[in-house]
Design a protein that fits this description.
Blueprint lengths: L12 H6 L1 H31 L4 H29 L13 H16 L3 H9 L11 E2 L2 H14 L1 H5 L1 E5 L3 E9 L19 E8 L1 E5 L2 E3 H5 L5 H23 L14 E3 L8 E5 L13 H8 L3 H4 L3 E4 L1 H7 L11 E2 L9 E2 L2 E5 L11 E6 L1 H4 E6 L3 E5 L6 E14 L5 E5 L2
Parallel strand pairs: 2-14, 7-8, 8-17, 9-12
Antiparallel strand pairs: 1-15, 3-4, 5-16, 6-16, 9-13, 10-11, 11-12, 13-17, 14-16, 15-16
């Protein structure tokens, strides 16, 4: 891409530490592309004020906008690759003898189908649900690696509250209103106060699965790290299913997404619903002062939540807000300060979730809130693997399952922007 301005120099310690030349070069190109985007969009706005936007200028803005999205995806992919730790390559990773024994037994099961070691270990540990028809629990470091990868790939999991549970359902009492209190004179009568109102929230863990395949030749190769191979194979399948469920899941056999809950206009909000702000224009931002709905959305959130707030939208919605300016002519959207960091909108981080709907009439396409307090992800401890060398010969299938649940835990912590 021929850019008008050179990329600004970036001296982020984090970028240099974990990026390497590939990420640094990609990040500098991204920053240069953003400068070109601002120039092209400024030209588009000036033409709009004078006589209407020239088709060539509009096309240029959209092409650079798309290039920004592509470059950001490349940076995210390179950073994720740089963060991936090596598994099983050193005994220092697992100092406990029992853990090393479990890892060795699991490796023998995956490579050769030997079950005796795992049966003995899991029977000794009194672990439930470990017969061969239910699969075997993966080593703890493999489970942690899968969790890390899911957090890197699944935007909602990364910003939400995550709890590991040992049962099938997590129940949490939540105080929707506190006890009545008030001031009283020294000798005045004290009337009985009202009791607090509690709501019990229930988050069942649903089963999610992936079935990667490998050849026996691959499994026999001692140089192949089986733990890391399994984590890489299941991460994309798990992350895609989780990402959809955490946003739009209906709660039937899957987590309940925050967009699946009932909504209400902010002035009529009540517990059990998510409040929304309307843009005042069907399927669009308003023609005059288009950034006002975003300001209203931010300040619909109470200060205690707002300080940890973040935006969630898909890349097409982000392309739309990237063109908006404040009353001083400054862009509301800002590029990330370093590789691996999210961009910001009005100084709040923006997280891309492709499962969010596109901007259209009556769509709820942008969310803002403190997702750490607003949305809860529950992980049932243990990831299980069942080896199947028969169903797809000459390939060996690995039926991998984990149990995940999710739902809104604080309906006051997330607000929505409705294009209506």
């Amino acid at each position: 891409m021929d850019l008008k301005h050179p990329a600004p120099e970036t001296k982020s310690v984090e970028t240099k530490h974990m990026a390497g030349p590939e990420v640094s070069a990609a990040f500098e190109e991204f920053m240069g592309a953003f400068e070109a985007f601002k120039d092209a969009n400024d030209l588009r706005l000036s033409e709009l004020e004078r006589r209407g936007v020239d088709a060539v200028t509009a096309d240029k803005v959209e092409r650079i906008n798309a290039a920004l999205d592509t470059q950001k995806s490349l940076i995210d992919e390179l950073v994720l690759k740089a963060r991936r730790p090596s598994l099983g390559g050193s005994a220092d990773l697992v100092s406990d003898l029992a853990a090393r024994e479990h890892k060795s037994a699991f490796d023998a099961y995956v490579r050769h189908g030997e079950t005796a070691g795992l049966k003995r270990l899991e029977a000794k540990a009194l672990s439930a649900g470990t017969p061969a028809d239910g699969g075997y629990v993966v080593p703890s470091e493999t489970e942690r690696e899968i969790g890390k990868r899911l957090a890197a790939l699944s935007p909602i999991r990364a910003i939400s509250d995550v709890r590991v549970i040992s049962s099938g359902t997590y129940k949490k009492p939540f105080m929707t209103s506190g006890p009545a209190v008030g001031w009283v004179a020294e000798t005045a009568a004290r009337t009985q106060t009202a009791s607090p109102v509690l709501d019990e929230l229930s988050f069942p863990a649903m089963e999610i699965y992936a079935m990667p395949a490998a050849t026996q030749t691959l499994l026999d190769d001692a140089a192949v790290n089986i733990d890391e191979w399994l984590a890489i194979e299941v991460e994309a399948a798990f992350a895609a299913q989780e990402g959809t469920a955490f946003v739009t899941g209906d709660g039937a056999g899957k987590p309940k997404g925050f967009l699946a809950y009932a909504t209400a206009a902010e002035d009529t909000w009540e517990w059990g619903k998510l409040g929304f702000i309307a843009t005042g224009a069907a399927g669009d931002f308003p023609a005059t002062n288009p950034a006002d709905p975003l300001v209203d959305l931010v300040y619909a959130l109470k200060a205690g939540y707002r300080q940890n707030g973040s935006f969630v939208m898909n890349r097409r919605s982000q392309a739309a807000v990237r063109k908006l300016k404040d009353e001083n002519g400054q862009y509301l959207w800002a590029p990330p300060t370093a590789a691996g960091q999210p961009p910001s909108l009005m100084n709040f981080p923006v997280h891309e979730a492709e499962e969010m709907p596109d901007i259209e009439e009556n769509s709820v396409s942008i969310a803002f809130g403190d997702f750490k307090r607003g949305y809860l992800v529950v992980d049932r401890a243990g990831v299980r693997v069942l080896r199947d060398p028969y169903s797809a010969k000459p390939y060996v299938l690995f039926y991998t399952t984990k149990r995940v649940g999710g739902g809104v835990q604080d309906f006051d912590a997330i607000k929505l922007l409705k294009f209506a």
